[in-house]
Inverse folding.
């Protein structure tokens, strides 16, 4: 049989096992105690009667005592106190000089009548006792006297008693005790036990019924408790199922934030929030990436479909092909940037670790960018102190060029771009400052987001996808540094590339 | 038919204008939202092709500005294709919606349908007595026989046929059939109408002296 997998049913099963075990232990003990007490009480009564009967049996009757070898007169009574002890008859009937059949004492013993004292008889009064009966045998099988209510199947005990009290226990439904006297009498006191046994059965039945009731109440209570206990789990499970089905905005309702399950729900909610953010970012990224690819594809389709509607002159074809080529180049740049970012995300982009001087790199970049600055009538200032860092020269070059290009593109007409390098404490900092319109504070956090562009349409028509800063930041991170921005609307923007300095400033200074 | 294309991607704009002109439309272009809204409000275009992502005013703002004054049919072009965007576009008052990248053939078909619907015609063919104008193939048949018209002659005939029963002024014809880049002579219109009458019969287009032309319903 497979055990049920639900926690609720498993707990119920364990509770049932536990309750049944406890209740049966308790019930059996109670029954045993009751039965023992009852039997002890009955046995006490039996023994009291046995003692009374035995005293009557032992009491010598009135009359002369037959002497061994004498022939006492018929009916001659023994004298009191002269009965000699009789050895137990299991020593054999031929004990020398005593107890041989036919001898006067023996005859007397065999034929005597036993009178019970009135007090003893009262003990066996059938009117107000529970049917106690007695029987007295001599020498094992000779029934001397028995009460009228004795059961017909009475039998003398099979073995000798020798003055010992034997608690014989049950014979059929009767409780009986025996006593063997010194002269060979055997006294049996019995009592029919039907009513007591029935009472015991009733008690047992009552115990079973009470046990079942307790079990039912226990299981019911257990069910309620387990239901209450696992309700939060079910709530969590249902919420998690809905979230898993796609509704990432769903949260688990937390009622008791202090309880174990409340804390679990809290942790799960935090996890779901992070998942939701990650999914949203991923979705946004995919949407942005596809959006960025849609426009060039639209150009390609439109160019080629127009060209194909009719015969064109060679110059028209050339124009179309050039347009397609430019567009394809743009798509290539975009996909390369995307791939680069994907490699950074996957941590696959290995950075070379070589000693570099940020000042030297900045000087090279400034020279490379000067023609562009000149085109836009922008003055380029440099203030470069040696800043030793460890890193990938090509990558750092890429970052600086990107920062300078942005500074030139987003500058005002005839503006300025200042590039400085400094070492502060154990960090090297490169700053690129422009005199552009600045970035609104609400846009600053999104600046490093992928595909973020201050002016989407204008930047796109200039062929920039909005991935440059995202890549630059990824490169800075991969160097163990950071890329930060400060901006004042109307005054300009400063980007700071911070990298760990390879030697402490004190030593280099 | 005169169409305004507002698109910030220069190559796409140039190419769309070229193919629309080749399809027989007079085409004006605008690269920014501001410029586009100004032109759309100034001239009576038969349709506007409007990109959503534009510098200065974006496509939504242009559309709102235009809808405040005119009912010119607008076909939105966008690279975003979420349902929310499409619903927003249609609710703001766009007549149709096309997601980039699109097929040129589809853009042309949608434009034809827009213009047809705007002038109250559901079908792509217009029948005037024994003359059948197929706006999709841009062909004309008379009593089952194809009649060869120049692009300009066809455009005049189609415009008059779409406004059947109305008197179309010469100014309206100029506005709708010639774009801003063309320098036209006023009597050129008469030359084209004369040519159409020669090919399809003199009584097809009536001249309302001092007012314009008309195709009787």
């Amino acid at each position: 049989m497979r055990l049920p997998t639900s926690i609720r049913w498993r707990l119920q099963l364990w509770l049932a096992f536990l309750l049944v075990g406890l209740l049966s232990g308790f019930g059996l003990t109670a029954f045993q105690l009751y039965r023992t007490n009852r039997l002890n009480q009955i046995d006490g009564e039996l023994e009291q009667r046995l003692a009374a009967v035995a005293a009557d049996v032992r009491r010598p009757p009135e009359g002369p005592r037959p002497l061994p070898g004498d022939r006492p007169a018929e009916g001659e009574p023994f004298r009191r106190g002269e009965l000699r002890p009789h050895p137990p008859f299991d020593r054999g009937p031929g004990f020398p000089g005593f107890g041989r059949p036919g001898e006067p004492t023996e005859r007397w013993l065999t034929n005597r009548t036993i009178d019970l004292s009135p007090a003893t008889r009262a003990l066996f009064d059938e009117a107000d006792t529970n049917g106690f009966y007695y029987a007295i045998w001599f020498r094992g099988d000779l029934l001397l006297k028995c009460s009228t209510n004795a059961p017909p199947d009475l039998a003398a005990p099979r073995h000798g008693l020798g003055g010992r009290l034997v608690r014989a226990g049950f014979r059929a439904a009767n409780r009986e005790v025996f006593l063997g006297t010194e002269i060979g009498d055997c006294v049996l006191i019995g009592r029919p036990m039907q009513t007591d046994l029935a009472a015991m059965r009733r008690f047992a039945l009552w115990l079973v019924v009470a046990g079942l009731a307790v079990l039912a109440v226990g299981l019911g209570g257990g069910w309620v408790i387990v239901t209450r206990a696992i309700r939060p789990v079910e709530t969590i499970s249902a919420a998690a199922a809905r979230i898993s089905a796609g509704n990432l905005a769903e949260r688990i309702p937390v009622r008791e934030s202090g309880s174990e399950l409340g804390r679990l729900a809290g942790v799960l909610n935090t996890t779901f929030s992070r998942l939701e953010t990650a999914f949203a970012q991923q979705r946004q990224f995919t949407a942005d990436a596809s959006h960025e690819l849609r426009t060039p594809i639209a150009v390609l389709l439109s160019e080629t479909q127009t060209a194909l509607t009719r015969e064109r002159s060679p110059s028209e074809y050339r124009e179309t092909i050039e347009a397609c080529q430019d567009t394809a180049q743009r798509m290539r740049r975009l996909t390369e940037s995307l791939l680069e970012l994907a490699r950074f995300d996957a941590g696959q982009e290995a950075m070379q670790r070589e000693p570099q001087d940020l000042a030297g790199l900045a000087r090279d970049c400034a020279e490379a960018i000067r023609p562009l600055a000149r085109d836009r009538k922008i003055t380029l200032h440099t203030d470069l102190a040696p800043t030793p860092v460890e890193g990938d020269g090509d990558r750092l070059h890429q970052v600086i060029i990107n920062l300078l290009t942005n500074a030139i593109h987003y500058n005002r007409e005839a503006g300025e771009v200042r590039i400085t390098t400094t070492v502060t404490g154990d960090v090297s900092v490169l700053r690129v400052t422009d005199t552009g319109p600045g970035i609104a504070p609400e846009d600053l956090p999104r600046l490093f987001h992928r595909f973020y562009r201050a002016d989407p349409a204008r930047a796109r028509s200039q062929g920039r996808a909005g991935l440059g800063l995202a890549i630059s930041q990824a490169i800075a991170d991969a160097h163990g540094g950071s890329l930060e921005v400060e901006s004042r609307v109307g005054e300009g923007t400063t980007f700071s590339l911070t990298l760990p300095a390879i030697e402490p400033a004190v030593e280099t200074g | 038919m005169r169409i305004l294309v507002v698109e910030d991607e220069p190559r796409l704009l140039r190419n769309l204008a070229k193919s629309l002109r080749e399809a027989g439309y007079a085409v004006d272009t605008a690269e920014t939202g501001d410029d586009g809204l100004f032109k759309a409000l100034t001239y009576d275009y038969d349709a506007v092709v409007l990109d959503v992502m534009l510098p200065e005013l974006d496509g939504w703002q242009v559309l709102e500005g235009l809808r405040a004054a005119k009912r010119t049919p607008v076909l939105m072009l966008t690279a975003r294709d979420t349902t929310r965007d499409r619903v927003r576009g249609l609710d703001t008052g766009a007549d149709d919606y096309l997601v980039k990248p699109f097929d040129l053939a589809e853009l042309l078909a949608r434009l034809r349908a827009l213009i047809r619907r705007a002038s109250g015609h559901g079908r792509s063919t217009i029948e005037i007595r024994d003359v059948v104008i197929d706006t999709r193939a841009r062909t004309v048949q008379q009593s089952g026989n194809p009649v060869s018209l120049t692009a300009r002659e066809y455009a005049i005939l189609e415009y008059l046929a779409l406004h059947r029963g109305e008197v179309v002024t010469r100014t309206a014809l100029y506005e709708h059939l010639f774009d801003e880049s063309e320098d036209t002579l006023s009597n050129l219109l008469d030359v084209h109408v004369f040519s159409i009458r020669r090919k399809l019969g003199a009584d097809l287009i009536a001249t309302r002296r001092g007012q314009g032309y008309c195709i009787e319903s």
Summary: Residues 260-345 of chain A form a domain with the Helix Hairpins fold (CATH 1.10.287.130). Chain A touches chain B at residues 287, 290-291, 294-295, 297-303, 305-306, 309-310, 323, 326-327, 455-458, 460-461 (CB under 8 Å).
